[in-house]
């Protein structure tokens, strides 16, 4: 019986040593990983001089020019629809946000859709919307007011001679889908 107890005690010691070694390996893995990444130049959180890049710059932005985006709105249906500002100036490649406001003036729920258009028409492939209320149908409750953002950027490949773009939305009721 004594030999079984001695073997169990030896096994317990081996398991404790293995557990401590596993913990140590896991603990050392973090600095080893950081060192390997630093040597290979991947997944860098700090720059070579030891400072942290606090304000990364978007290198896609063309700071050498400004484009004026004029905001237009047209409503076909029971609402007031307008941009909250007339225009915005952006650098090509810069992310911008504008807001359109719509008010359902009817005492009933209305389903609607906004359709964008651009002038001049040749800028359409350069106007990139990231988020837009025009991506889906809007259900407006009776007398509801809503502010709807458009997040966009203008492709830096926009021809240099284009100085002004008009973004226009037509907001209309979807026939046959109105609710009472």
Automatic annotation (TrEMBL):
A GO term from the CC aspect: plasma membrane
Membrane topology category: Single-pass type II membrane protein
Entry keyword set: Copper, Membrane, Signal-anchor, Transmembrane, Transmembrane helix
Single GO MF descriptor: copper ion binding
InterPro entries recorded: CtaG/Cox11_dom_sf (IPR023471), Cyt_c_oxidase_assmbl_CtaG (IPR007533)
Presence of keyword Membrane: yes
Matching Pfam families: CtaG_Cox11
Compartments where located: Cell inner membrane
Protein origin, superkingdom: Bacteria
Coarse class of the protein's main subcellular location: membrane
Record field: transmembrane: 12-33
Gene3D superfamilies referenced in this protein's UniProt entry, alphabetically: Ctag/Cox11
Family, as annotated: Belongs to the COX11/CtaG family.
Function: Exerts its effect at some terminal stage of cytochrome c oxidase synthesis, probably by being involved in the insertion of the copper B into subunit I.
Protein name as catalogued: Cytochrome c oxidase assembly protein CtaG
The species this protein was found in: Pseudoduganella aquatica
């Amino acid at each position: 019986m004594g030999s079984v107890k001695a073997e169990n005690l030896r096994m317990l010691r081996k398991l404790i040593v293995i557990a401590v070694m596993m913990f140590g390996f896991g603990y050392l893995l973090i600095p080893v990983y950081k060192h390997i990444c630093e040597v290979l130049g991947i997944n860098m959180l700090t720059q070579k001089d030891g400072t942290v890049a606090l304000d990364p710059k978007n290198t896609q932005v063309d700071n050498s020019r400004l484009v004026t985006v004029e905001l237009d709105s047209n409503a076909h249906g029971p609402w007031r629809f307008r941009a909250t500002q007339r225009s915005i100036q952006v650098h090509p490649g810069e992310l911008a946000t504008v807001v359109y406001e719509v008010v359902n003036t009817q005492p009933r729920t209305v389903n609607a859709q906004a359709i964008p258009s651009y002038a001049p028409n040749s800028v359409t492939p350069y106007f990139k919307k990231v988020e837009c209320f025009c991506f889906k149908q809007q259900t407006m409750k009776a007398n509801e007011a809503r502010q709807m953002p458009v997040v966009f950027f203008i492709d830096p490949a926009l021809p240099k001679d284009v100085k002004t773009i008009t973004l226009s939305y037509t907001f209309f009721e979807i026939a046959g889908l109105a609710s009472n």
